[in-house]
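Page 37, continued from 36.
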């Protein structure tokens, strides 16, 4: 599965309301009944899986712990993530 934060287009620090809003927006855009694109159904399944994981506090906490551990194991990815967070804050 793709990173659920990427799938919903949100930051790992997003609040529950932001997660729900991003999910609803993406679900409307990629729902197979509304989007005739052949890849829409697959994208919709990824969006649904991401929301299922991130909307459950325990699952999100477990995922975030695993994600942090994996980022620490890969210094380049950790630096890239920190840089992206910094840029996001500067732009906002």
């Amino acid at each position: 599965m793709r990173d659920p934060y990427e799938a919903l287009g949100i930051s790992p620090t997003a609040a529950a309301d932001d997660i729900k809003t991003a999910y609803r927006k993406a679900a409307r855009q990629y729902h197979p009944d509304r989007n005739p694109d052949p890849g829409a159904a697959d994208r919709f399944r990824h969006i649904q899986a991401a929301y299922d994981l991130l909307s459950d506090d325990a699952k999100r906490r477990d995922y975030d712990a695993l994600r942090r551990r994996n980022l620490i194991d890969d210094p380049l990815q950790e630096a890239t993530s920190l840089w992206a967070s910094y840029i996001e804050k500067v732009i906002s």
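The mean pLDDT is 89. Flag for discussion at group meeting. The longest helix spans residues 57-73.
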